[in-house]
């Protein structure tokens, strides 16, 4: 049954916070052993200490009175967390889905300032930097999303500044973490919205107690609009474009409503882990999920691709080169966003505008349009369409300008967005990372990544950036192009991939080839 299928990724928000109670139990266990075997405390005294409770890292009285047991417990707890984070990464990367892919998982960390939570953050980063397997491969899953805000980890005086430095170092060695900018209010209320999968975000939803809820919610599907196709049909005709856009958006709404009515009949027993055992709900076997589909609990995405191509077709120049055209182009996105909000009000479905990742659509849409409309310079002839609201891959622009141009995309595409820049390795310039991030946060970027070269050649030992060619990837030092003798990491869209193991489609490979550094 199609009701059993899921697509996209699953995310663990607040991984560091979720593990704190269990790390505290580990500390207590190790401290109790330390009292017996290191401090040589008698059984009666140990029982008295246990009965009093509060055997925690934060208990300075225990530290002063039993320093050896305390140090022993700290060391063993650190080792326990280290092994747990290594185990998580190894488990995920030793599994595969039915089509041979590593499970698409995302973990959200960064908000915890407790010793226990900071340990999780530290060893998530250290594990990723260490690599896994005999060849110390760079893992691409789980995707790591690190939350940042003022007063937490953006400045030297912040409590998690040291962890942020570790995260920046991790970026230079594995590209991840991606950065999620949050507000102080979200931090205090515990309402940080981590992405589902690579870039999808849930809209606010409140339970009967008025509590803002995100964990346990889900997305029931995305319908993506081929914006360049509409622009090709109405080349230079803005009014015609908007008229056709309205028609296509109504189709998207009807398609989504049909899907919701279909899914509302699903009984919990069709996917017991999801609907009965608590992954998404705890229902009786014959209960339906209708109450979760409607009312905004589930998200319904309307996506789009190719805003860059639209600006060229409608206004004669890419939006990156002309402020007036930029304003007109992003007014289209604003219009789409407002229509999606209208759909949400009309239908009682959780509609959201989604900047589609387009890892396959970038090729498929461009190929279909080329077959129908022929070669259009700068549009169909290049073999791919650009991602959502992104500045076109081939445009040579500095990172600050690219982020400025894309910031409105985050504001309008609240249901899914990400920006990223391409740089040379910043391993000797971590200060540049924080300057980029501070600027991004200031101008309204919500979620972003910095792509840096982390490829490895298993023939000559080269570490850096492989050459992207039509036939695949090639070591610039020895010419090795054998897929099983290299580790190549590239961002597909919101997440990373190993194209030497699972080659991109032709369109995505051409898009990768066309990417320029934003220096």
Question: Which labels suit this protein?
Answer:
single chain; 519 residues; 16 strands; 44% helix; globular
Any chance you could write out the topology, listing elements then pairs?
Blueprint: E1 10-12, H1 15-18, H2 20-37, H3 43-52, H4 60-65, H5 67-93, E2 105-109, H6 115-130, E3 143-148, H7 161-174, E4 178-181, H8 184-189, E5 219-226, H9 227-233, H10 238-263, H11 272-275, H12 290-293, E6 299-305, H13 307-315, H14 323-347, E7 350-355, H15 361-373, H16 399-412, E8 419-422, H17 430-443, E9 447-451, E10 455-457, E11 463-464, E12 467-469, E13 472-474, E14 486-487, E15 490-491, E16 496-497, H18 506-514
Parallel strand pairs: 1-2, 2-3, 3-4, 5-6, 6-7, 8-9
Antiparallel strand pairs: 4-9, 10-11, 10-14, 12-13, 15-16
Helix pairs in contact: 2-5, 5-6, 6-7, 9-10, 9-13, 10-14, 13-14, 14-16, 16-17
Span of the ends, CA to CA: 50 Å
Q: Which regions have little confidence, pLDDT < 50, spanning 5+ residues? A: 1-5
Instruction: Please identify the structural class as seen in this structure.
Output: alpha/beta
> Rg from C-alpha positions?
25 Å
Overall pLDDT confidence: 94
How large is the count of helical segments?
18
Total number of beta strands: 16
Shape annotation: globular
**What proportion of the residues form beta strands (DSSP E)?**
5-15%
> Largest sheet, if any?
6 strands, mixed
């Amino acid at each position: 049954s199609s009701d059993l299928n899921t697509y996209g990724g699953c995310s663990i928000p607040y991984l560091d916070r979720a593990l704190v109670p269990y790390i505290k139990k580990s500390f207590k266990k190790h401290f109790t052993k330390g009292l017996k075997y290191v401090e040589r405390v008698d059984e009666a005294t140990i029982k008295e200490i246990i009965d009093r409770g509060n055997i925690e890292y934060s208990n300075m009285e225990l530290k002063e009175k039993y320093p050896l047991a305390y140090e022993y417990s700290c060391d063993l707890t650190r080792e326990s967390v280290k092994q747990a984070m290594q185990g998580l990464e190894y488990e995920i990367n030793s599994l595969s889905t039915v089509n041979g892919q590593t499970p698409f998982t995302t973990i959200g960390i960064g908000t915890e300032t407790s010793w226990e939570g900071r340990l999780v953050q530290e060893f998530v980063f250290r594990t990723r930097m260490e690599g896994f397997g005999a060849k110390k491969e760079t893992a691409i899953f789980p995707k790591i999303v690190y939350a940042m805000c003022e007063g937490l980890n953006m400045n030297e005086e912040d409590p998690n500044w040291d962890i942020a430095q570790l995260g920046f170092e991790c970026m230079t060695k594995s590209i991840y973490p991606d950065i999620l900018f949050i507000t102080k209010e979200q931090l205090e209320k515990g309402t940080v919205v981590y992405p589902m999968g690579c870039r999808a975000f849930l809209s606010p939803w409140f339970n009967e107690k008025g509590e803002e809820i995100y964990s346990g919610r889900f997305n029931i599907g995305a319908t993506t609009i081929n914006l360049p196709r509409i622009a090709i049909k109405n080349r230079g005709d803005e009014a015609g474009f908007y008229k056709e856009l309205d028609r296509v958006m109504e189709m998207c709404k009807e398609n989504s409503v049909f899907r919701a009515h279909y899914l509302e009949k699903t009984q919990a027993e069709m996917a017991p882990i999801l609907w009965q055992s608590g992954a998404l709900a705890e229902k009786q076997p014959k209960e339906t999920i209708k109450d979760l589909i409607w009312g905004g609990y589930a998200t319904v995405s309307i996506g789009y691709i190719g805003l860059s191509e639209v600006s060229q077709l409608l206004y004669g120049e890419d939006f990156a080169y002309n402020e007036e055209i930029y304003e007109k182009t992003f007014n289209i996105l604003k219009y789409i966003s407002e229509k999606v909000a209208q759909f949400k009000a009309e239908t009682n479905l959780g509609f959201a505008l989604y900047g589609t990742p387009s890892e396959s659509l970038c090729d498929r849409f461009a190929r279909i349009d080329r077959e129908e409309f022929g070669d259009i310079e700068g549009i169909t002839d290049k073999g791919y369409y650009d991602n959502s609201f992104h500045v076109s891959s081939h445009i040579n622009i500095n990172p600050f300008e690219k982020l400025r141009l894309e910031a409105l995309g985050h504001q309008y595409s609240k249901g899914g967005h990400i920006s990223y820049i391409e740089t040379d390795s910043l391993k000797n310039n971590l200060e540049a990372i924080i300057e980029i991030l501070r600027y991004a946060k200031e101008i309204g970027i919500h979620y972003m990544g910095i792509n840096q070269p982390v490829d490895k050649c298993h023939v000559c030992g080269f570490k850096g950036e492989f050459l992207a060619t039509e036939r695949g990837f090639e070591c610039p030092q020895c010419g090795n192009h054998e897929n099983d003798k290299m580790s190549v990491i590239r961002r597909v869209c919101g997440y990373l991939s190993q194209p030497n193991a699972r080659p991109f489609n032709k369109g995505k490979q051409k898009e990768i080839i066309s990417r320029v550094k934003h220096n």
